[in-house]
Every structure is written in C-alpha cells, then in structure tokens.
Amino acid sequence: MFVPVVDVQQNPLMPTTPTRARRWVRSGKATPFWKRGVFCVRLNVEPSDRSTQFIAVGIDPGSKREGFTVKSAAHTYINVQATAVDWVKDAVEVRRSMRRARRFRKTPCRANRRNRSIGGLPPSTRARWGWKLRIASWLQKMYPITVFVVEDVCAKTKKYREAYKPLKQHAGAAQKFNASFSPLEVGKWWFYSELRKLAAVETRQGWETKELRDQHGLRKSSSKLAERFSAHCVDSWVLANWYVGGHTKPDNTRLLVVVPLRFHRRQLHRLQPEAGGIRSRYGGTRSHGFKRGSLVKHPKFGLTYVGGFRNDRISLHAADSGERITKAAKPEECRFLTYNTWRARLPRMP
C-alpha cells in the first residue's frame, strides 16, 4: 500500500512508497500521522513537484457492504470495504414507540411538538448515503482525486394500474404515489449533488460494470459479507480503472475494512426497568470526559476506544474488532489520542 502525502496546509499530494516515507521521516523532511486508520506523512518543506496524475475513486454501493478503490493509471493506492449503516430505521421506530408509550404513563412530559421528520430525506436514507459521503470526503483529504465513478443503483416507482382508472376514489392516491420517488432514488441524487462539491462524478450502470469485469476476466464472489477483494472492491476497481486505465488485472488486492461505530442517542432511561422497577440512564456520547469512540492508550490494554460507563469507570473496546475488553477502566489511566467514529483494520490476505 502506498502512503498518502499532504503539504503543510494539508493539501493532498501524490502518494509515495513506504520506503521513501520512512526516509523522509528519519531526515525530518516529513512528519508521520494517522488519519482514521491510514498512515500518512506531512511534508515540512516545499515539495519538489506539485503536479498530480488523474486519480479516480470507484464506488460500489451495497445494502450490507460497499467497495471503494482509489486508483491512478500507474497504481492502485487503496481498496476499502465498508460496512453500510443499516440500523437507523429500526432505531427511529423504537424511539417513536417509546415516546408514544411515555405519554400514557403518569410522568411529567412536554407538549407535543411539530413533527420535524416530515419533509427532506428520511433518517435511514440520510444515514446510508451520508456514510458514503463521509468516506469519500475522508479519501479526498488524503489523495488528489480527479473524479468519482459510481455504480448507479436504480429503483422503479410503481405504475398507475389500468384497473384503478374507473375508481375515482383511488385515482388521486395513485397519481400522488406515482409522482413521488423511492427513498433510494432521493438519497442517490442527494449523494451525487454533494459528491460533486468534492470532485467530478461519473456513473455507470450495473450491467456496464459486469461487462467491465468480463473484459478483465474477473469474477465477483457470491459471498457478499466476505472480507475479500472479489466481494465488492472488484467492482469499484473496474470502475476506477475504466476512467484512468493502466491495468488489465488488479495490481493491489489488499483490503482496508472500515466499520462505523454505532452511538446510541441519549435516552431518559433504559427501555425496560431493572430489578425494583429502576430505570437506569442510557445512551449519550460522553463518558467521564471522553467522547465515545475516542482512541485512547491504556497502560494494560494498549490501544482501545472508549465505550459506555458505569459509576466512575468506563468501558474499553478493541480498536480492530470492537470487542469489549473491560468495563472497569479508570478514566485517569487512559491517555487520549484522537477522536474516532469508525473502526479500521487490515484483514489477513487469503
């Protein structure tokens, strides 16, 4: 994998090899740093050349996993397989149910407010496509990206049935439904409009992506949840290669797996009472001064990220797998490193 390079003003330059990056760091010419799981270097001097090549980012959207590939005509710099954000719809439904249930209990409650969720993007759609935009923005800060090439996903609206025409009471409802778009279409076009603020956008249909795979003799795996290049990044690679060219076979199949952290909204109390009818505090984004998800260094457990808390202790989770390591870490023993909203790791090569 190549090392991203930025200048003093954090403007991305052409990536370099790990050997050259180490030489720059040893000589003091560059300073190393991490950007959301990717090792980068910042030049402390004026670069010898600011010219850049055409760099394309192929994006393969998916319902569970998604693929991103950053590629030029000479090299494939990084392949990212990301887990999609798919829990928002259920969370909104639980929030709605619990709010309605509270209004039947003899507890102090505020007056009804205007429904702020009406209009605009649905929360689940906004979260799904916003996650793709966050990754695209993250890549754009490390690489001088020229264009984003996205596999266009389509959803057809239902047509007005002939059988409904004689029924006047159904005609208005059918026409109103037919004038609206599916959440997939609405989210897709919002994503394209925001993505064009970063760089140019090109789209390819699904059948065109398959033709590109066949031209290169590549096959896509049927195991969509597998952490393999052939699961999703094979599509993102052929999309990027379609724009910049340079290869007939993938020159880099190493994956960086990215998983978003789920932060629970601050609730009045847990959904179900504990023993004795006590409902304890739940949710939020702060744990004894630490923002949840922050990477910290613990003297015993090493590199971890912050989870919830109980009493005067906080829980720590493994930075690569997300597994909870302890629930009784002392906050004063944890050294804050950086804020973090997702987990990133390099799986073993097959």
Give Rg in angstroms.
24 Å
Query: How are the strands of the biggest sheet laid out side by side?
Result: 9-8-5-6-7-10-18
The CATH architecture category of the largest domain equals 2-Layer Sandwich
Number of strands: 18
Mean pLDDT: 86
What's the N-to-C terminus distance? 16 Å
Structure explained in plain terms:
It is a single chain. The chain is of the alpha+beta class and 350 residues long. It has three domains: 1-48, no CATH class; 52-87 and 122-260, Nucleotidyltransferase, domain 5 (2-Layer Sandwich); 263-271 and 283-350. Helices cover 26% and strands 27% of the residues. It is built from seven helices and 18 strands. It has helices at residues 18-27, 88-102, 123-140, 168-179, 183-195, 206-215, 233-244, and strands spanning 3-6, 12-16, 30-35, 38-43, 55-60, 65-72, 76-83, 147-151, 200-204, 255-260, 286-287, 290-291, 295-298, 302-310, 313-318, 324-329, 335-338, 342-345. The strands form four sheets. A seven-stranded mixed beta sheet has the order 9-8-5-6-7-10-18. Strands 16-15-14-13-17 form a five-stranded antiparallel beta sheet, with no helix packed on it. The chain has a four-stranded mixed beta sheet with strand order 2-1-4-3, with helices on one face. A hairpin with a 2-residue loop joins strand 14 (302-310) and strand 15 (313-318). Helix 3 runs parallel beside helix 5 and helix 6 packs across helix 7. The longest helix is centred in the middle third of the chain and has 18 residues, at 123-140. The two termini are 16 Å apart. Mean pLDDT is 86; it is low at 160-172 and 174-179.
